[in-house]
Specification:
Number of strands: 8
Oligomer: single chain
Structural class: alpha/beta
Low-confidence stretches: 60-64, 324-328
Mean pLDDT: 85
Shape: globular
Order of helices and strands: HHHEHHEHEHHEHHEHEHEHHEH
Length: 328
């Protein structure tokens, strides 16, 4: 094994990067093959494939045993395997840094533990609809090599006394048994302020249970909660998170990057007045900016053109502005 591969191997082990370790194993096998050690390379290749198959079988088995409600056995979560996750985000540098810090601390969790330090494991994302909060959870799952386990609030809540809190406990216990990114999407659904005076009884008990489970959360993965209406959350919720940050509307720089990234597979006319287009898109969510670019590209393709014109983009923006398209 050459020195470069050996250094990268030691670094990947130290950082706990499964993807890098897998890549380095393949490079090491190929290196042995290139140096004429065909027999050893074949043996290493078989060991590697057996290990990957076993890991996949173990993961699939754990995904089949999803938490369910005791009353009707309805599944309380949905699980998205890492290899099917969307994960590309365009963010302001300061927000990108916040996401990256969570990922780096997770990768270095064992090194942090050696110094009595804990990684950020409970993250609350807030901001306007369509700005990428749920995508942020998917991105964290992708970059930490974890599956995404999303709570189904429609199945979790029950009209029976104490059952909603029991279902919530089942979900948190499941997260302890299998490393994952546990997503409480639009958590205000169950975490509304107890001082509002509108919700009593079972709803209040669910908030109390959530506070307790957040306090006790020590699963091997990461918990991510999202909300569009952070002002309606119970104040005590915020103190339970290791990090709370805003996923904002895209600015001019982010709008430009989103447009060019979305339109990268098709040619765009050189005559497009990008400054004017970006001005028209100010105030729209990232999801809407992406939709505008996609609709413009589809309009060009459907009429047999291989180039997106400025008029295609303007028409797509006009439709969005008129409210002809639902909120993504």
């Amino acid at each position: 094994m050459n020195a470069d591969i050996l250094k990268r191997l030691v670094r990947a082990i130290g950082e706990g990067s499964h993807d890098d370790l897998s890549d380095l194993a393949k490079k090491a096998i190929q290196n042995e093959r290139d140096t004429g050690h065909a027999k050893l390379a074949g043996e290493l290749d078989r060991i590697f494939e057996r290990a990957r198959t076993k890991a996949a079988e173990t993961n699939n088995s754990s995904l089949r045993e999803l938490p369910s409600s005791r009353r009707n056995r309805e599944q309380l979560v949905t699980v998205t395997p890492r290899d099917t996750l969307e994960h590309t985000m365009v963010l302001p540098p300061e927000v990108e840094e916040r996401f990256a810090r969570v990922e780096k601390e997770y990768a270095a969790r064992e090194r942090l533990s050696a110094y009595g330090l804990r990684p950020r494991k409970r993250v609350l994302l807030h901001g306007p609809p369509g700005c990428g909060k749920s995508l942020g959870a998917k991105r964290l799952a992708w970059n930490t090599t974890l599956p995404l386990m999303k709570v189904r609030f429609d199945a979790l809540l029950s009209s029976y006394f104490g059952e909603s809190a029991s279902n919530l406990r089942t979900v948190f216990e499941a997260a302890k048994e299998r490393p994952c990114v546990l997503l409480l999407d639009e958590c205000d659904f169950i975490a509304r302020s107890r001082s509002s005076g509108r919700d009593v009884g079972e709803a209040s008990r669910v908030v109390n249970a959530l506070l307790q489970f957040l306090d006790e959360y020590d699963a091997p993965g990461i918990l991510v909660a999202t909300t569009n209406v952070e002002e309606s959350l119970d104040e005590a919720i915020f103190r339970r998170f290791d990090d709370v940050f805003l996923v904002p509307l895209p600015g001019e720089t982010e709008i430009t990057r989103l447009l060019k990234l979305t339109l990268s597979a098709i040619k765009v006319s050189n005559s497009v007045d990008w400054d004017s287009i970006i001005g028209l898109l100010k105030g729209l969510s990232a999801a809407y900016v992406v939709k505008v670019a996609q609709d413009a590209a589809k309009a060009a393709v459907l009429v047999g053109r291989k180039i997106v014109e400025e008029d295609d983009i303007r028409k797509a923006i006009a439709e969005i502005r008129k409210g002809n398209s639902p909120q993504p």
